[in-house]
Amino acid sequence: MSENYYEFTLIPLPYDYGALEPYISTQTMQVHHDRLLKAYVEKLNGALSTYPSLQKLSLEQLLGNTCAIPASIRTSIVNFGGGVYNHNFFFASLRAGTSENKPVGSLASTIDHHFGSFAEFKKAFKEKALSVFGSGWMWLVKDRKGGLLLEQTANQNTPISLGHRPLLVIDVWEHAYFLQYLNLRADYIDNWFNVINWERADALFGMT
User: Fold this and answer.
1) Cβ atoms within 10 Å of 91's Cβ, excluding its own
2) Which of 69, 92, 115 is the last residue of a domain?
3) Is residue 57 part of a domain?
């Protein structure tokens, strides 16, 4: 094995497993993080293990230029690297919830300007999140011009491959909600709005 080899690690949650109750259950968070994300990390490391030239790159560098990845592992990097990136971003985008949770700062005013109001944003976001076919993600992103976009990605694809800056995301793979909500994706989305870390999203929006 190359002396340059390093492994991606399973990043701990930034809060307790039960911190998002009752909106996202303790059991859901334990299974989602400790089993599913862990498996993505292990498979990503396996895909990179024989490519020393790629082993020092960040996930953003790998996923932002997938054409430069050898064809033999490109699909694995997109799938497993995307799985690690998306899940880490998802978990970091959450915090202990409140039914009064709302956007803050410059992002709040930009949402109002772009969508008309926070209520209209929630309506549009929920509709698009419900319309994600099969497994995927629903994102709020900052585009290349500094505007806001609602963007769906399938499987483990990421907005950074399009040059967009993710601000927040909801995982709409069934594993993200089935233990608690069964097939009621709409209820899961409604409750997800209560646990968004809007301060983090605003900070990301303000980055140049």
Assistant:
1) 19
2) 92
3) yes
Q: Are residues 63 and 151 in the same domain?
A: no
pLDDT, position 52: 82
User: In the prediction, which pLDDT does 1 show?
Assistant: 43
Task: Tell me 12's DSSP state.
Answer: P
For 110-114, the CB contacts below 8 A with 24+ separation are: 110/148, 110/205, 111/148, 114/147, 114/148
pTM: 0.94
pLDDT for 6-22, tens place per residue? 789 999 999 999 999 99
Please enumerate in sequence order all residues whose Cβ is within 8 A of that of 12, keeping only pairs 6 or more positions apart, or say none.
none
Which bin fits 99, alpha (ψ -120 to 50), beta or left (φ > 0)?
alpha
pLDDT exceeds 90 at position 208? no
Nearest to 80 by CA among 38, 52, 116, 129: 38
Measure the CA angle with vertex 102, ends 12 and 134; round to 5°: 60
What's the Cα-to-Cα distance from 5 to each of 48, 69, 131, 137, 169, rounded to whole Å? 9, 17, 41, 31, 31
Spatial distance between the Cα atoms of 55 and 5, rounded to a whole number of angstroms: 6
Identity of residue 34? D
